[in-house]
Amino acid sequence: MIATGKILFILMLLLHKNSGQDAFSDKKTLKIPETYTVSWMQSLDDSKLISTITIPGTHESMALHGLQAVKCQALSLEDQLKAGIRYLEFTVSGKKMDIKDGALFKHAKFDEAFKTIKSFLTQFKSETVLVRVESKDKKINVQDLIQNLIEKDVNVWVQPSIPKIGDVRGKIVFVQKDSFKLGIPLTEITTKGDHKVSNSKEKQVKIRDHLSEAFKECAKEGGESSVVLTYSSDTYLKKNILNFISTPKTVAKDVNPWLHDYLKKASQENPKPCYGIIAMDFPGFDLIQMVIGFNT
Prior knowledge:
- The structure is a single chain.
- This protein has 296 residues and is α/β, with parallel strands linked by helices.
- The protein has a single domain, classed as Alpha-Beta Barrel (TIM Barrel), CATH 3.20.20.
- 33% of the residues lie in helices and 15% in strands.
- It is built from eight helices and ten strands.
- The longest helix is centred in the C-terminal third of the chain and has 22 residues, at 248-269.
- The protein is globular.
């Protein structure tokens, strides 16, 4: 089964001749090769811990609308999942569980996103999707609302222990974030000061260092204690008289092609490293597949 998955992945890359040209994408329509298999996790050994897998993810997964300063993705949630994304994150506020980016409503609610993920997992039962929820709402306990939503749902994982793939196929795995304590622990490589960069070269150095650290964390003996997360997303603070801040889109347009090439080189030097979760803005299909390829 594992060998078959690897063969399919190699064939897909060979047939998709523009590999590397789609590292960044702001298109709203997903186009995938006919040879592509959505269920990429089916080739993973059931006994493998999810903390030892390299997982493609999206930063602020539902930030699809509004000002360019806060827009982070182009594809719908369903298309992100079909493209291979297996880590999603949402900022949730209010009794209706609105999905927001800061103070901006993002035309979506968490229960709707939850249904979309559940529908995907019903169709593709070999997969699992990690979900991280953040809330800055000081008046409403979002965790309580989500616990009510998932009550008696056997297809969610809310325990703090790291599961094996075989334990969570067809399930949503919640990931802890600050006051949100449902699910598995997270080691976030990116720290607050790391966002203060002024150009793509600085950001590339940060990402390279973070991935190196993530690799070491994944390789630690007893790596079942947490899942590692690295962000490639950011905004640049331009050091000029206008003090202009670039958008997530302009950063991704610079960084994503570089990240694709960096990961390609890393895969040639070490075919099976683990980098944990890599959360991205505007990832193109080829970049997502490059991340997935570390598991085959």
